[in-house]
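User: I'm putting together a teaching handout on how multi-component assemblies are represented. Below are the sequence lines for each component of a complex, exactly as they appear in our records. Could you produce the 3D structure of the whole assembly as structure tokens, so the students can see both representations side by side? Please keep the chain order the same as the input.
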Amino acid sequence: MYDKGKIIGGLAIFLCLASFPVWYMAASGKADYHPDPVLPAGENQCVESAQYMREYHMQLMQQWRDQSVRQGDSIYISSDNRTFDINLTGTCLKCHPSKAEFCDRCHNYTGTAPNCWDCHNVPPVKAPQQGTE
Amino acid sequence: MNIDRRSFLKLTALGLLALAAKPAIDLISKPSAARALNGPAAGKRLAMAIDLKACTAKNGCIDCIAACHRVHNVPDIGNRKEDIKWLWETGYDQAFPDQENKFAAQPLQDRRVLVLCNHCDNPPCVKVCPTQATWKRDDGIVMMDYHRCIGCRYCMAACPYGSRSFNWRDPRPYIKVIDDGYPTRTKGVVEKCNFCEERLVDGLQPACVEACTSGALTFGDLKPGTGLYRLVSSEFNLCRKAELGTLPQVYYLL
Amino acid sequence: MIEKILRGGKRYWLLVSGLLLFMAVGLAAYLQQWNTGLTVTGLSRDISWGLYIANFTFFVGVAASAVMLVIPYYLHNGKEFRRIIILGEFMAVAACLVAITFILVDLGQPARVFNIILYPSPGSIIFWDMVVLTIYLLLNIVLGWVALDAEYKEVPPPAWLKPLAIVSIVWAVSIHTITAFIYAGLAARLFWLTALLAPRFLASAFASGPALLILLALAMKKWGDFDPGDRSLDMVAKIVAYAIIITLFFLLMEVFTVFYSQVPEAMAHFQYLLFGLDGHYGLVPWAWTSILLACSAIVLLVIPSLRKNHGILALACAAVFVSIWIDKGLGLVIPGFVPSPLGEITEYKPTMLEILITAGVWAMGGLILTLLFKVVVSIRQGKQQADWL
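Assistant: Of course. Below is the structure of the complete assembly, with chains in the same order as your input.
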């Protein structure tokens, strides 16, 4: 191989740089960090189960959006037959009033920036975290 | 394998394209949203009558406009060019430019006319929207979906009444008090009067109708036998630019 | 073949760098628009379409004009056009991309542009315009590239090329007719609600597009060591002459109908454009410049001794191009909105950011044109390292 030394050396440097996130996190001890959204005290169950919401709240909100805006139907019946008003500010934020302490925790960690909040209002949190109003 | 670089690249590209085929087909074969309604407005034909004799806008009253803009977080940008208005008042000659008549009665010419989206039965804005971000509901309301609007402003060009406004910039800094009952909008989307469809769901009257103290605004179902129907069929009324065939559903009682 | 863009002389790299610079400035300006919103333009509630849509309309016409070379070459065996037809097809590619970019730049929510594909709306002319423009772009890329490739390898082009070229003729007419339909179907805007709009668009396209092509061919002759052939240039110049005469004729038809019938709502738009309305004269100098340029160009193009002089021909073509850019650009879009549906008058003046973004998109078109033409010239010269420019 021509320039064997330079090529192998260069490959080694590249691999170090490319794997930087892995060995840096391992060395700094932050590897077991996970986001901790502040859950509401009081209410036990969200619109659907916590596991379902964790995985599918994006699709659920899209479904809510289309159902409420495009079909004019603002009543959602959950899988356990509870009735909810389809309303981001009025229903979701009723139990999760602090966007910074709940929504943003995971969104910031994963680097997603949903633009719901460009339009949907986040009322100022009225009291220190005490669950629902 | 005896393949040259060019053919290899072409094959790879085709392969990637093929991989993308199924997701692409899934994406575009979503059933289109049904237009039927389940809410309280189902089965109605909503319309509005505006009594220009009773309206006190000529004395400076803007209760209806203030209520509408407050309830819907309509911003006050402060300059005429970027103005966002769902409901406003204008002169008789501006509202009815086709009624060229120098000898129309003076009291008529002094009337201030409330103008808004007419929620036409044959809406040109709905026809031209390339994403169906605006559509005609079964109950007659011409709806806006701010999520889907791409801001092409074709609907603004198509509207013969100038009813639509565009968000040239982020509106939030220009809203004095944000009402949590309705979202604000963001820059780059078109908006207009929505006949308070979110209030109708709760059984309320539109904000302008509720705020009017002179009884000039009547809103409701325009089916034979209803109060609105009797009002509109018994008194002489005009629609704006009726000759264009848009079938507007706002009737002006003179 | 595409590797030919990587080697060139000093003037080539100077041109490419200049165009990239304008594109960078345009991009910076566009980022400002992306962040702040379309408030950075001179648009308003009353005049919601302006410089961007004006340019879009104009460049769709330029793209459609390739058909003016394809018809004589493929349908009528006009062998004189053999050398320049590839220029026409590549000019169509660049113009298509410029037109589509102007739409993207005009959108309030450009990230959502795929909604047009996700939620097809067959009732909307903009939907159809996107469909036909995309197909036309692909058609011209294929036609141009395959023909050039055949020439490069010194083999006859594949048999399916000719039928595809015939399809592109029909398609070219369709893209500009559909673009005209965007305007001509709106009952709200009497300035555009005329059956004559699509014919006007086609006539002005067949004048401005070939005019640009002649200018490009002359430039290539002077600086690119590329000879388009005097006979073909003269034939294209005659096409431009006929087309600009018909364009002017159509304008006179519109003016007569409106001012003889005296219908106020229809007249008001033309009054604003040509004579000013209620103290607002913003477009009047532009309108008369456009008419003057067109008339002068007709004289220069119709007289053979003047037309065959390449210096005068260049002037005439530049005059045609500018005249129609005004007429089909701002001279089409703005009077449609003035006066507003309520009879009110707002005037429009593009802002500096708007102009910079526009210039950036033009530069992008220029770059695509430069690169594609570079390939053509390099191949024609048959050299590995083309010292073009």
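A couple of points students might notice: DSSP finds nine helices and ten strands in chain B. The interface with chain A takes residues 33-39, 41-42, 73, 135, 137, 139, 143, 145-147, 170, 178, 180-181, 183-186, 197, 201 of chain B (CB under 8 Å).
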